[in-house]
Amino acid sequence: MFDDDTRTRDALHVLIDEPVPPTVTTVEQVIRQGRRRAFVQRAAAVAGVGAVVAAIGVGAMLIRPPADGAGVAATPPPTSSTTPLLPGWTWVDVPARNLDGDGRYCASSPSDHPEPQLDLPPQADVEETFYSAIARQTGAPSQVVYDSWEAHSQKTNAPNGFVEVNVPMDGGPGSVQLEVGRFGGEPEQAADLDVTAYGNCAPPSRRLLDNGAVLQLYQANEDSPELPMQHLRVYRPNGRLYVVTTAAYGESDKKPAGELGGYVVEDGRGRLPLDAAQLAEVARSLAALDE
Question: Where do the H-state alpha helices sit in 88-209?
Fold first, then answer.
């Protein structure tokens, strides 16, 4: 199934073999390393769980890092739907960093701003805010399937938190994930560098909040109609970064992947558990947290 690039699905990426991995692996790095063409997305791996959703063959695959530290990278550029512009938001121009000639594959730029010495916020405060915000949008309680709060993550060489919850949907659960980290520079500077953080040339939208926080909403990735995914990044003035991801599959959709040591996700709900407006409200709640 590794040869079937036309069936490749969305991916959640982990860099195991580099001592200080960047927040997002760029397309240039994937090509330079001579690996399969890949579209990769950050997720649980940075929190130490080491699970990644890799799109291979007929479904998405969750792969845990092997003991010898070999990395994983696979999948082609994403297919996006156009998310309508939310009230109060503006479109962001995507700079011309197209790598494949067809306008689908764009690279992000590394930051030259040092990250602040910023410890993780209190886990209980963040998780309570996250869970409550999701419940307000869905009208139902969520189920925690994983959480990790590391003062120093070996994956990022920095403090890192990760939470994943499942929320009820018709036909099964969907997933909402939160990554907690930090960034260097001013919020708008960091957001500008991250306009193509997920490899997609489609423009994200942005909103500047009264407290100085910047929200950046990316187009939903619909490479697989059954497994769409969407990201929203929150840049607070103090250097705090929150990344909220909503995905159309849940814990019950993960199947063992045999010798690869992970899980295959072949089926999903076909729609996201949070629409763009709901995702934005969850992000606004996190942006309002005091630290």
Answer: 123-138, 187-193
Mean predicted confidence (pLDDT) in 258-263: 74
Residue 246 confidence (pLDDT): 95
Does pTM top 0.85 for this prediction?
no
Q: Using CA atoms, how far apart are residues 281 and 46, in angstroms rounded to an integer?
A: 24
Say if CB 147 and CB 164 are below 8 A apart: yes
Whole-number Å distance between alpha carbons of 103 and 20: 30
Structure tokens at 18: 């580099």
Cα–Cα distance measured from residue 208 to residue 215, given in angstroms and rounded to the nearest whole number = 6
Within 10 angstroms of residue 101's Cβ, the number of other Cβ atoms is: 7
Q: For residue 244, what are the β-bridge partners?
A: 178, 232
pLDDT digits (tens, 9 = 90+) for 67-107: 333 323 333 444 555 788 999 999 998 776 656 556 567 77
Residue with tokens 């200080």: 20
Q: How many domains does the chain have?
A: 1
Structure-token pair, residue 229: 């995914």
Question: What is d(CA 275, CA 182) in angstroms, rounded to the nearest whole number?
Answer: 26
**Structural domain span for residue 142:** 5-287
pLDDT tens-digit readout, 186-218: 999 999 999 988 887 888 999 999 999 999 999
Cα separation, 218 vs 230, whole angstroms = 7
